Amino acid sequence: MDSRDTDWDGVRLHVVTGKGGTGKTTVAAALALALAAGGRKVLLVEVEGRQGIAQIFDLPPLPYEERKIAVAPDGGDVYALAIDPEEAMLDYMEMFYGMRRAGRALTRMGIVDFATTVAPGFRDVLVTGKTTEAVRRRAKNGKRVYDAVVLDAPPTGRITRFLNVTQEVAGLAKVGPIKNHSDLVSGVVKSPETAVHFVTLLEEMPVQETLDGLAELRSAGLPPGGIFINMVRESLLPQAVLDSAVKGRFDVGELTLGLKAAGLADGADAAAVAESLVGEVVEHARRTQIERAERASLDQADLPRYELPLLADGVDLAGLYELAASIRNQGAA
């Protein structure tokens, strides 16, 4: 098994959150592949019922069971679990009351929907409980079943409430199995074995939501992880050129000469092509300037950062492996 050092040695539960549209599920899947590389066994869990894992790995909808979905680079396996709250409730009934059959009857009566409507935090206890059980689980030989668990969690705006299960059930149960169960979950989630990673883009709204989410997370005593900046576009021009373009000092004549020298256009055509390119250069320069400002905003988070490239051909299975390699190369896994 690969024994490389990473930024998150000792972390066994990697919670991945982010504003909608930032590629949260993609990053969670790539992180799972990266963590499994070199002979490890990793479980990738989703809790929102969207079957996002199945879609990104180009698989049929996943059942409520842990099943192998991918082989990681240099060996290693990625398993996946799409948690269904009703099935999690049956597990709960069996684990604490030995009442799985009765639980099925209650499920048919809609008891899960009733319970989670009366106490919305209970649903989160069920799904986080199933996840943390996988983190704690050991084989008969005493070894951990999974080297790491990656949780594709709810969006940033809901992540603290989702993970802060002890407080969520405080009004539901002061003692008994539910309270004990939530304490077990909280013991894992708030431990050094857990890290909550944020996925963002270099845009104002996702960056601000990341910073707000981090502040809320820290206030609740939950462990922040790293920041994954997704879909980063490489700047193709020198910084001096970009600065000039933003200030309206871009030299069209120089661009025209450059086009001619490269044999890309001649005569009047070169001037026309240069004029059309100027707008693209200025837009690129302004976007780059905004991205620099957003990176500076993220500095205040004081957390490790990882930049993942925008994939020109979109995120397919090959793209996932490319992102996983980038995550490994930056020391996140």
UniProtKB/TrEMBL annotation:
Lineage: Bacteria, Bacillati, Actinomycetota, Actinomycetes, Streptosporangiales
Pfam families: ArsA_ATPase (PF02374)
Domain ArsA/GET3 Anion-transporting ATPase-like intervals: 13-172
Entry's Gene Ontology molecular function annotations: ATP binding; ATP hydrolysis activity
Gene3D superfamilies: P-loop containing nucleotide triphosphate hydrolases (3.40.50.300)
Listed name of the protein: ArsA/GET3 Anion-transporting ATPase-like domain-containing protein
InterPro entries, alphabetized: ArsA/GET3_ATPase-like (IPR025723), ATPase_ArsA/GET3 (IPR016300), P-loop_NTPase (IPR027417)
Source species of the chain: Nonomuraea endophytica
Domain of life: Bacteria
